[in-house]
Amino acid sequence: IKTIFTIHNLKFQGKYDESVIGDILGLEGTPAAAGTGCTFNDLKPEPLFVKRSRFSEAADAIVRVSGPSMEPLYHNDDLVYVQFTEEAEDGTDVICSTADGAVIKRVKNKMLYSLNQDYPFGKKNEDDHVVVLGKVLGIVGKEDQPNTEDIADLETVLSRELREFYKEHGE
Fold first, then answer.
1. Where are the alpha helices (DSSP H) in the chain?
2. Strand 61-66 with 32-33, pairing
3. What confidence tens digit (pLDDT) does each residue in 157-170 have?
């Protein structure tokens, strides 16, 4: 006998509920360097299931961190929730587009800084075309992501949302 999972019988099993079944966010194809910059690419975002939270509710995308310059807060391969905005206040961690590529840095006195002093971020000028793309809301923890065995269930439960995601992102 084949079991067809629906949101109702998954809830009944106690495995998922409205507070957990949440969001499909796009994992951007271009990582943000915690160093000098990652070259932008044309890869489409891939869907990533995340547990519903205040961060996932406010986020527009997820970006992978590349490099050690934002340690000890962000590490290589960390995933971060990003809300698209061009605004950045002091103390905010941001994803920026620069002449060197995409970077993740902290804003202080209208300048961008690395947290790890072993990897300073050089001064930029108007020729570097620095543009804030979004602010970092927080780190996507392992507890925010489904176990591998749960992904197939979530793909079934959220199939309509997945189709909408692919339609929106040109798949």
1. 7-12, 54-58, 148-157, 159-168
2. parallel
3. 888 888 888 888 77
- Closest among 7, 17, 46, 49 to 29, alpha carbons compared: 46
Please state, as a whole number, how many other Cβ atoms lie within 10 Å of the Cβ of residue 56. Answer: 21
Asked if residues 66 and 38 have their Cβ atoms less than 8 Å apart, the reply is yes
pTM, whole model, 2 decimals? Answer: 0.79
Cβ count near 143 (within 10 Å) = 7
Amino acid at 79: L
Name the one residue in this structure whose structure tokens are 């587009």: 97
What is the reported pLDDT for 102?
A: 85
Cα–Cα nearest to 144, from 47, 50, 15: 50
Question: What is the C-alpha to C-alpha distance for residues 22 and 57, in angstroms, rounded to an integer?
Answer: 8
Enter the tokens of residue 153. 């269930």
User: DSSP characters for 50-69?
Assistant: E---HHHHH-SEEEEEESST
Contact 36, 120 (CB under 8 A): no
Q: How many CB atoms lie within 10 A of CB 27?
A: 17
